[in-house]
Design brief:
alpha+beta; Heat Shock Protein 90; Arc Repressor Mutant, subunit A; six-stranded mixed sheet; three-stranded antiparallel sheet; 19 helices; 39% helix
């Protein structure tokens, strides 16, 4: 907070004892080439390195003291790796790109300071952008008789990439981390937002932590300075009808995370799951209501603020719509007033005819002849733990189940088939809630539900403790024995 309150931007601090020899000459040469490609024969390109740096904010003269020297921005952008991480510069500096495209491997590709390249911001940008953008679709488009290989989505992703670099607090731990998954990008940088979350979502106001770095990227075609960067990111994602980007902040240490999902606003799988839970009457809801339910299903919870990013409706209308869904039992509120969030409910309470038009019970897993009543099922063995409620585990149970889960909990990236097998083992003797399973496996509860619990229940591998209300908060799961 004290650093951000300084009238001199963090990256314009002149570094005592650092000279042009601490810069990577190759990076400066390549930057000039990118500068020329973006701006043509700009007047600054004829300047010597020191003068060019002065124009860009990489060199600064203090008019009060008369001292001059390389700035933190100049060193971060063009410096040698060892010089950047000098205790007098940015000892916590770290940049990391990770590709997680193959579930069987921890990383399918990674770029980080491994000693084989000068890991300044410009070189990181040069190396990572082609890899990051390779995951985007490029439809065939002609513009002026020439094929256009960039789309609004490319512009949005580049804006998000550059934002992570120019808004980072390089004095804070953690570094800049970019992750590419098959269905999303996740970009994290250390520091806090310099505007409120509400202002960030509205856009139109530019408040940059590192103004010189912002100028350096602007000159090579990266980043916006007019406060329209957020709008460009949202517009690019909207052009593909993908779910809106999700911004989040995390304290201790302070970090900002931007998630860019590459999934449709209402994926077919989510809509099918909603129909399974609530019946075919889901199709009678209006689009905004379906969007609210789908968001709760995909992201675990939904809020008024999140729906403002996805819908054009007024916040007051969104609140009324969420209230209606709660009254019908489709959503459950945590009643935190302004910060209220909602999750999927157990079904309709006030208007059953809307979702039970055929007079049938929804999503019942106790149909005659299924496995839920077969003799020999583990869930009905005398003397076992299967009839215990999904409450707190005893220390003995916790220890036993933790030992069973160790093969997954001790691994950052276990194979899906191993995760499924361990889930069946820990749920073999008693009902466990999703939170309990996630804690035992050291996994995110929302992802665990989507990737494992829902599919395994549908396949008959797991049984719900409350099948008549699949999404009640205390829902628990138990393994179905195989004959």
């Amino acid at each position: 907070m004290l650093a951000d309150a300084d009238p001199v931007p963090a990256d314009q601090r002149a570094l005592a004892g650092f000279t042009l020899d601490d810069l990577d000459a190759g990076s400066l040469t390549q930057y000039r080439q990118r500068f020329r490609a973006a701006k043509g024969e700009h007047a600054w390109l004829s300047l010597e390195d020191k003068e060019l740096l002065d124009r860009l904010g990489g060199w600064r003269r203090d008019r009060t003291t008369g001292t001059e020297g390389l700035t933190l921005a100049g060193l971060l952008m063009f410096g040698k790796d060892q010089a950047i991480r000098d205790p007098e510069a940015a000892p916590a500096y770290f940049v990391d790109y990770r590709e997680k495209l193959d579930p069987a491997t921890r990383w399918s590709d990674r770029v980080y300071p491994d000693g084989t390249w000068e890991a300044n911001l410009f070189q990181f940008y040069q190396r990572v952008w082609p890899k990051l953008s390779a995951g985007l679709p490029v439809p065939f488009q002609l513009e002026g008789g020439m094929r256009r290989d960039e789309t609004p989505v490319h512009e949005a992703l580049r804006e998000a990439f550059v934002n992570a670099l120019i808004h980072a607090d390089y004095s804070a731990p953690g570094g800049v981390v970019l992750e590419r998954y098959p269905d999303q990008f996740v970009l994290e940088n250390p520091g806090t937002l310099l505007v409120s979350l509400e202002q960030f979502r509205r856009g139109g106001v530019s408040e940059c932590r590192n103004k010189s770095l912002q100028k350096m990227f602007l000159m090579i075609g990266g980043g916006e300075q007019a406060g329209s960067g957020v709008d460009k990111i949202r517009a690019g994602w909207r052009s593909r009808h993908w779910r809106a980007p999700l911004i989040g902040t995390h304290p201790q240490p302070d970090r900002v995370r931007l998630t860019l999902p590459m999934v449709s606003l209402i994926p077919d799988a989510s809509l099918a799951h909603l129909r399974d839970v609530f019946g075919a009457g889901v199709d009678a809801l209006d689009p905004a209501e379906v969007q609210a339910l789908a968001t709760a299903e995909i992201e675990g919870v939904v809020s008024n603020a999140r729906l403002q990013e996805l819908l054009a409706d007024h916040p007051v209308d969104i609140t009324r719509m969420l209230t209606r869904l709660c009254e019908r039992g489709l959503l459950v509120s945590d009643n935190r007033r302004r910060w209220t969030t909602y999750r999927l409910g157990g079904g309709v309470t006030s208007a059953p005819s809307l979702f039970d038009e055929a007079g049938e019970k929804r999503n019942s897993l106790h149909k005659p002849g299924d496995l839920s009543h077969k003799p020999g099922d583990l869930s009905h063995k005398p003397g076992d733990l299967s009839h215990k409620p999904g409450g707190e585990l005893t220390p003995e149970e916790e220890k036993t189940l933790s030992n069973l889960a160790d093969r997954v909990s001790s691994s950052g990236r276990a194979k899906p088939e191993l995760v499924r097998r361990v889930i069946l083992e820990v749920c073999a003797q008693r009902y466990l809630t999703a939170d309990q399973i996630a804690r035992l496996l050291h996994r995110n509860v929302a992802g665990l539900r989507t990737r494992y619990l829902y599919p395994m229940t549908g396949e008959g591998l797991l049984r719900l403790r409350y099948p008549e209300s699949p999404n009640r908060p205390d829902q628990a799961y138990i393994s179905v024995a195989k004959e």
